[in-house]
């Protein structure tokens, strides 16, 4: 969806988690390589159960059974302001999501929880840099989710019930060689809380409807014979929230015409058909066809609106051919037809992540509606050669073309893996990558149709070593260069007529270290430590700044201990450098609204907020209820109730004119919050 929609939604509804957590507090007392993630592959042969590495993520404290939420305990991953992951110095917009071989619309609800039930996951992989040619349209990281195959068993059901989100999971066989499952979940805040419970008048947001989200996943698999299988799947998700924005909200203080009712309504649905053929010689062919339908609407200020809809039809194929014991080829193609419509009746904000404050870069109001179509094509070839028993060389390339910007790319990628000993592996990867630009930067009505697609170069070098009793460690360094990033031009710029130009470059580098312990002696866990640096350079001004998500130090300690055969306790401790922010050094008159003021900023992203510190704890108890298997889980988020500052803004309660001294106010993330979940299987 357009970045303007994403920015607006965050500005309007960012206080939701804070409001909810304060309410709870008051009432309760709140296939390639990524060695950093893979912790065990001993169960990957059974596609009807979850792999051990993904199960670890599910059981991680603070994730509340959501493995994708647990990715923030992995090296090099931080939250962005929109609650999506930023990996190794790249933007969240640079990521790509794949589910069961097919492209996915989004995998996170609007407020950070993933759309997947833990019952349907088989495997989850995060490729944070140097991924292979089978992945396209990504310059940051790839999140590859594999949903497990349905079990051919008598019909069964599991019911989850918690204050935050509840659902039902049904699974069973249909014939001797076919089975299905269905997962449906819905947030239940509207049953426990009223709009007034969530509202925070001091922060300027009064909810008129309790936020809701839903998601569903359906999968049917027919194992036709020993060589062929057919999968039919459907999935979808939705988010909505309504609130009134008052003059106390920062967005309204800087843009008074945004005062009034605000509404967010977002949904997607997808359907896929996938046929797989496996030959006796190791040959494997997969053919998929999928439909995606995205819709989002944002309304604010009693007068402004932004609507986006996209329909995508994707055909994707992959062929793996082993030519000998030491050499194999893999071919793949993906064709996507995308029809999208965009309607905007609002103020135009021309800005990017390089700008310290997007809300204060107002441009002319726009009222238009447009319908467009684009075709994206990618093809790849990868060769895997093992010249010796301990050495593997992957050399491949991807060709990509889209007719909207009329650009084509030939992107080489290479990976080398050397087993120095039975327990020690060295690896090196390099590749070139690109992605389609953010749509509002290339629309003629809002951007520059001649803008080029962002590109990146990735380089990694790593070592991994395994020891007895499930111990291992990995160390990987990375270096990324980012090119053709967009720069926004406001009305006072000589390039204002273009709105955006490709005049930003970037650089990100660092090292990730991880010590891992597989499940032995009743416990498992890991400790990770990351050092990284991410910068962006304005080629016009010849100015280099820290990226706003630059986080030099990230540390995570995760542990889970089974102190009884049916009881587990675990924790996740996360600490990291404070986020970069732009200091406010003065106050100026608001040029658009008489009698209002705006902050005067110092050097962009030149200072840091206090460091981040959060301890989450989880207790689980496997028991019975009504003669059925049951489980009780208690999660305590931010047990230390540490005040993690996420933003620092001008305090409009104290600053109303240019004669007032500068005063700032901090916004904090989630505070102490308990959550209880109870589930029963029938």
Automatic annotation (TrEMBL):
Keywords: Cell outer membrane, Membrane, Receptor, Signal, TonB box, Transmembrane, Transmembrane beta strand, Transport. InterPro entries: Beta-barrel_TonB, Beta-barrel_TonB_sf, TonB-dep_rcpt-like. SUPFAM superfamilies: Porins. Its main location: membrane. It is found in: Cell outer membrane. It is a multi-pass membrane protein. Residues 214-639 form the TonB-dependent receptor-like beta-barrel domain. Belongs to the TonB-dependent receptor family. Hemoglobin/haptoglobin binding protein subfamily. This is TonB-dependent receptor.
């Amino acid at each position: 969806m357009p970045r303007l929609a994403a920015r607006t939604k965050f500005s309007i509804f960012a206080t939701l988690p804070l409001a909810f957590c304060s309410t709870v507090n008051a009432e309760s007392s709140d296939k390639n390589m990524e060695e950093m993630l893979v912790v065990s592959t001993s169960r990957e042969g059974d596609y009807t159960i979850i792999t051990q590495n993904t199960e670890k993520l599910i059981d991680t404290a603070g994730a509340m059974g959501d493995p994708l939420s647990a990715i923030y305990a992995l090296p090099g991953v931080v939250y962005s302001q929109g609650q999506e992951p930023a990996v190794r110095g790249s933007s969240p917009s640079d990521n790509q999501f794949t589910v069961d071989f097919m492209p996915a619309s989004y995998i996170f609800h609007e407020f950070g929880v993933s759309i997947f039930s833990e019952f349907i996951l088989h495997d989850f992989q995060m490729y944070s840099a140097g991924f292979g040619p089978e992945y396209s349209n990504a310059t940051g990281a790839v999140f590859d989710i594999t949903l497990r195959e349905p079990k051919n068993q008598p019909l069964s059901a599991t019911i989850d019930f918690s204050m935050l989100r509840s659902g039902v999971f049904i699974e069973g066989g249909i014939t001797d060689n076919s089975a299905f499952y269905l997962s449906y979940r819905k947030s239940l805040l509207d049953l426990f809380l009223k709009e007034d419970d969530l509202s925070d008048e001091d922060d300027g947001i009064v909810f008129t409807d309790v936020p809701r989200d839903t998601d569903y996943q359906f999968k049917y698999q027919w194992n036709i014979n020993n060589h062929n299988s057919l999968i039919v799947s459907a999935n979808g998700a939705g988010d909505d929230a309504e609130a009134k924005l008052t003059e106390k909200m920062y967005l309204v203080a800087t843009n008074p015409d945004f005062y009034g009712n605000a509404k967010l309504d977002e949904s997607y649905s997808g359907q896929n058909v996938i046929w797989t053929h496996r030959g006796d010689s190791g040959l494997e062919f997969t053919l998929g066809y999928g439909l995606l339908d995205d819709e989002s609407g944002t309304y604010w200020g009693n007068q402004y609106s932004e609507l986006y809809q996209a329909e995508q039809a994707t055909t994707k194929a992959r062929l793996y051919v082993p030519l000998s014991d030491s050499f194999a080829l893999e071919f793949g193609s993906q064709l996507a037809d995308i029809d999208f419509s965009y309607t905007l009746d609002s103020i135009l904000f021309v800005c990017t992540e390089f700008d310290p404050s997007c809300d204060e870069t107002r441009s002319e109001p726009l009222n238009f509606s447009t319908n467009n179509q684009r075709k994206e094509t990618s093809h790849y070839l990868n060769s895997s050669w093992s010249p010796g028993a301990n050495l593997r060389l992957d050399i491949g390339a991807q060709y990509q073309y889209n007719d909207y910007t009329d650009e084509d790319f030939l992107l080489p990628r290479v990976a080398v893996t050397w087993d120095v000993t039975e327990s020690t592996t060295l690896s090196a990867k390099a590749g070139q990558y690109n992605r389609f630009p953010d749509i509002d930067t290339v629309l003629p009505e809002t951007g520059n149709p001649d803008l080029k697609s962002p590109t990146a170069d990735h380089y990694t070098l790593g070592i991994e070593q395994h020891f007895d009793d499930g111990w291992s460690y990995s160390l990987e360094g990375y270096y990324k260069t980012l090119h053709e990033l967009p720069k926004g031009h406001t009305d006072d710029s000589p390039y204002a007529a273009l709105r955006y130009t490709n005049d930003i470059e970037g650089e990100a580098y660092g090292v990730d270290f991880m010590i891992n312990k597989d499940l032995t002696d009743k416990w498992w866990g890991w400790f990770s430590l990351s050092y990284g640096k991410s910068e962006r350079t304005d080629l016009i001004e010849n100015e280099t700044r820290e990226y706003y998500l630059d986080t030099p130090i990230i540390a995570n300690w995760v542990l889970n201990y089974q102190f009884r055969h049916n009881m587990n306790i675990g924790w996740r401790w996360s600490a990291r450098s404070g986020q970069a922010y732009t200091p406010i050094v003065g106050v100026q008159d608001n040029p658009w609204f008489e009698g209002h003021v705006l902050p005067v900023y110092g050097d962009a992203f030149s200072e840091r907020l206090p460091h981040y510190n959060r301890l989450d704890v989880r207790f689980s108890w496997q028991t019975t209820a009504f003669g059925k298997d049951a489980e009780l889980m208690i999660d305590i988020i931010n047990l230390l109730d540490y005040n993690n500052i996420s933003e620092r803004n001008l305090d409009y309660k104290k600053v109303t004119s240019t004669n007032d001294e500068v005063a700032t106010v901090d916004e904090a993330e989630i505070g102490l919050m308990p959550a209880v979940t109870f589930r029963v299987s029938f």
